[in-house]
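Quarterly update from the structural biology core.
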Amino acid sequence: MSELRIALVAEGPTDFEIIQAALKAVLPNPFVMTQLQPEETQPQLGKGWGGVLKWCHQAHQRHSGLLIEDPTLVGFDLIIIHLDVDVAHEKYSKCGEKVETWAKENSWQNLPCAQSCPPVSDTADTLVQVIESWLGQAKLSNRTLLCLPAQSSGTWLAAAVLPLTHPLLVNNAECNRTLESQLRQLPQNQRIKKKPREYRNHAPTITKNWNQVKQVCTQAEKFEDLVLAAVSLQD
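Predicted structure, tokenized:
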């Protein structure tokens, strides 16, 4: 099998490091992942979940049909769209009046859309519907995957680097919206700041301890299942 070409639409550069490390644990063969969002040559989209939203809206304006068949994405075998599950607590107004107008004009699914947690899957499933509404006529497929860490990709990092008995992990870690920020407040020998360099330094631990991540994070296991199903189509 030739090297997989993967496109990533994500909230930010730290998410790239987490997702790439996860893919190294899941995929049996080498791959090349290109970050489409955020992208330095298109700073107008911005970062964070608002940048993902705007990228999806552009895809809707540009293409009708399966997103993987968009002519501008023809060079990729897989597309991954990342959104942290804590986005379910946000409001469109946070992204400005223009986005609020788009939401009304395009009948986007409502935000906030958070459900009771646990289980986190209820909120994640609702967030899938939100993303699909952003994409409009640009449709997901089994080669366009959603990566929805709960409550953020930092939870996957915490699950990899901390012992399973750590207080941050023992009680519904996927429902803890402050877990990622709490990583910055741990004792100095465990502290991890949300910076690409620090996340990159810890990425090999995510790859090595991926099975432990799946023990804590149901959304990590779901992502793995989606990736393996998509890769089976390439064989």
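The beta strands are 4-9, 31-37, 65-66, 78-82, 138-139, 144-147.
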